[in-house]
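Quick one: structure for this chain?
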Amino acid sequence: MQKKFLIIGNKNAISYKETFSLIKEKKIWLGRTNVKIFKTFDHEGEKFKQFGNVGWFTNLEHGLRHEKLKLLTMEENLIYDKRLVKAIREAEKRSREEKPRREAEKRSREEKPRREATNTISQVW
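Got it. Here's what it folds into:
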């Protein structure tokens, strides 16, 4: 029987090859929530410390593990992601600028006369 565990650790540990391989093999996964505040004790008494990069690593089942991610539609992305909007506009601008050049190249290929074969079968024999 496999032992169950819950570890509080730095989320940067996800990028360690040892940890990442366990996540990839679905032997461990992230916990349901992030750790925000720790209650600590010292000679002055009780204190609370806040962290932004601390999370749970576990092999305990919890509800969020199997929930599907809600992905945004393109319309929603265009509302929330201004960099995406800018990139799309730049790509459209490049496309408009390149279109006349592509059409000119196409016309020049069509206008070039094709070389006729100089030798016919009767001339060869």
